[in-house]
């Protein structure tokens, strides 16, 4: 099984078999598929910003430091990825 990476996009991935348990209920499976598809489509810096904010719980300041960007750029990346996540899930997040 491949690990999901934050860096450059993977060239071969089967989201259904690589990242989602076969035991997952259909609604969970659909939501996870939407999230992984979104992550795969995001530019690397937006993907990293989203994971650092949403998964790791880092502040905008910490995200800026980790990415080596200004605070305003970190906020913009987080906002852009949050909007993309909301669209992928069909509502607000």
Helix and strand composition category: mainly alpha
The end-to-end span amounts to 29 Å
CATH architecture of the domain at 25-88: Orthogonal Bundle
Which band does the percent of strand residues land in? under 5%
Please work out how many helical segments DSSP would assign.
5
Provide the helix percentage: 55-70%
| Strand segment count | 0
CATH class group of the domain at 25-88: Mainly Alpha
Contiguous runs where pLDDT drops below 50 for at least 5 residues: none
Mean pLDDT: 80
Helix-strand string: HHHHH
**Sheet having the most strands:** none
CATH superfamily of the domain at 25-88, by name, is Winged helix-like DNA-binding domain superfamily/Winged helix DNA-binding domain
Radius of gyration: 14 Å
- CATH fold-type name of the domain at 25-88: Arc Repressor Mutant, subunit A
């Amino acid at each position: 099984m491949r690990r999901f990476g934050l860096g450059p996009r993977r060239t071969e991935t089967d989201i259904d078999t690589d990242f989602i348990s076969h035991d997952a209920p259909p609604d969970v499976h659909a939501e996870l598929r939407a999230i992984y598809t979104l992550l795969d489509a995001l530019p690397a810096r937006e993907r990293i910003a989203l994971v650092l904010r949403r998964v790791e719980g880092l502040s905008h300041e910490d995200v800026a430091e980790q990415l080596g960007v200004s605070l305003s750029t970190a906020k913009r990346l987080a906002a852009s990825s949050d909007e993309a996540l909301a669209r992928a899930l069909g509502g607000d997040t």
